[in-house]
Amino acid sequence: MVAVDHVSFQVDKGEFLVILGPSGSGKSTLLMMIAGFIHPDEGEIYIEGELVNDKPPYERNVGMVFQSLALFPHMTVYENVAFPLKMRRLDPSVIDGKVKEILEIVRLSGLEDRKIHELSGGQRQRVALARTLVFKPSILLLDEPFGALDRKLREEMQVEMRKLHDELNATSLLVTHDQREALVLADEIMVIKDGRIEQKGLKREVYFKPRTTFVASFMGLTNVLNGYLWGDEKGPYVEISDKVKVRVPPMRKGGGMVHLAIKAQDVILSRVGEPTPGVENNIFEGTIVGEVFEGPDIIYEVALTDGLTLKAVTASISPLNLKVGDKVYVTLDPSRMTVLEE
Questions:
Q1: Would you put residue 207 in left (φ > 0), alpha (ψ -120 to 50) or beta?
Q2: Is residue 5 part of a domain?
């Protein structure tokens, strides 16, 4: 079985790249190869223009933060952060200055003498980051570093990590299966599946313009409908079923199976099917058959004709006040959908 298959990409200096994919997609293996803990069977790895395939991890000048953090429990905060500098045999006065500087940046000044068990989860996370950043690595590698934190703390640490990256002008590469985390942190996102790159690009491009059905379904709650592309005097449309024909953005006139990706947030629900310019032919009757309350939002499952169902997201304070069993109208805006060829 191949864990990473013909993967080739570049990370620019100062960039924050997030490798996103499901469990078993090869994310961590890729990170371990860059760090030097796994040797690739073929291919080349360059860091700052230097071929490093045969260099051990300690000669690559990379910093790595694991989900487990791997902090030394018998050491103080100061000693943990100073450890990589002592291993590099720097002068004690230089070590002291660098440790105090990085602790100030990660907001841990005053906690130098505390042991690891005396810290909160967020403070331990910052110690791990400080220990990795104190020797100014060429690239910072992060292997799902926030996975063990509760949701609130994880979201706080994501914001802090992005600020820290910008402040230090670091070059960072993080792997995660969390789409929200990727969108918060990344400049660019690289989506991988089964060891291969599905798409790499700016996060807004990957989110709004997926190139494959996997990326479309993995980046947020997305409806992926299969149908045949036709065209007439009014333009192209996708025939999903005998009763559901969806007008799509201008493209080739017709012919061939396609996949239609529509994000749940772009499925518009209403009590009255009033046409608006551009979507008058994309209004369908449906019935609410399921709902999931998520606090600020509600995810509705809407059944159309022929057994077709769509997911739709509305604000929980919406005046529609929909409930299971209600009849609704579904509007699909061609400008908010993506057509993917077979």
A1: alpha
A2: no
The string of DSSP codes covering 101-112 is HHHHHTT-TT-T
pTM here is 0.87
Two tokens, residue 158: 């994501």
From CA 249, how far away is CA 271, in angstroms rounded? 26
CA distance 322 to 300: 9
State mean pLDDT over 308-330. 91
| Residue 68 to residue 147: CA distance in whole angstroms | 9
The tokens of 214 are what? 């996997």
The sign of the CA dihedral 201, 205, 209, 210 is positive
**Amino acid identity for residue 184 in this structure:** V
* Max Cα-Cα span within the chain: 78
Is the distance from CB of 102 to CB of 130 less than 8 angstroms?
yes
* Token representation of residue 293: 């309350």
> Does one domain contain both 172 and 228?
no
- Which residues span the domain enclosing 60? 16-213
Residue that finishes a domain, picked among 213, 232, 257: 213
Tell me, yes or no, whether 8 lies in a domain: no
The distance in angstroms from the start CA to the end CA of the chain is: 27
Give the side-chain half-sphere CA count within 13 A for 300: 30
pLDDT digits (tens, 9 = 90+) for 306-315: 789 999 999 9
With cut-offs at 50, 70 and 90, classify the pLDDT of residue 227: very high
Query: Can you tell me the distance from the alpha carbon of 208 to that of 263, in angstroms, rounded to the nearest whole number?
Result: 9
| 188/290 Cα distance (integer angstroms) | 35
Q: What is the number of structural domains in the chain?
A: 2
Structure tokens that stand for 73 in this block: 């429990």
User: Which of the listed residues 213, 237, 263 is the one where a domain comes to its end?
Assistant: 213
